[in-house]
Amino acid sequence: MPAESTRAFRQHSRNLKSVEHGLLMAERAHKAAIRRNHQDEIEFHSRMHLLVVGVMAEARLRKILWDPSGFNKRERDLVLSKRSQLERWELAVEYAFRRHYTIPMHLGLDALPQPQRDQSARLRSMLGTDLKPVIETRNDVAHGFWEWIMNARETSITAAAPSLLNYLQIHRRSGALAELGGLIYALAISEPTFQRDYDEHLDAIEAFSRGFAADDFTSWKQTMAPMPQPAPIRVI
Q1: Residue 147 is part of which domain span?
Q2: What pLDDT, on the 0 to 100 scale, is given for residue 226?
Q3: Strand, coil or helix: 230
Q4: pTM of the model
Q5: Is 231 among the domain residues?
Q6: Looking at residues 172-200, what average pLDDT do you find?
């Protein structure tokens, strides 16, 4: 294994672990604001929570790309040449399938055998559904487009900022991304492991996805209300 990729893999693994710890802290702060029922705090922590989820997705992809058991330097360089995080994830999926099933670059992924052809399409669809909105919103939050979205040259308004997501909406997207990242990681380093774990990961992603609307947020929020404090005992 090349020393460079082994060293970088260890560093990116530690980065991801640190970001995951930061996500836990962001979740706790978001919950605390909900308990206090302070709207300004809730809005701020909603943005920070979502921002860290997007950072986690980026850190997870770096770990996948630098695992010495997975992509080679040429594949990794091609993925990293893309500026868009979504394009990077999509290429990671494409190159992993091409390598495992020896599909040359001049052929499309429809040259894959079944069921891998359907699996490839499903993964790319989930990336567009589960990952793209988080990454795009993360970029808007990071660039300070909290009320209005600006054009690329930042000279005019293109739209109002999207409505803030609540805690459950962000938390469930975070869970779906973690499962999706785990599935793509397995694909990158071991096709047999990917096939073995495919249905398990897919079931978990779909379970999170069914809760994206968070219709149960109001009832969940009631469970987060602070416990009433006992009245002080009067000493006579």
Answers
A1: 3-220
A2: 67
A3: coil
A4: 0.89
A5: no
A6: 94
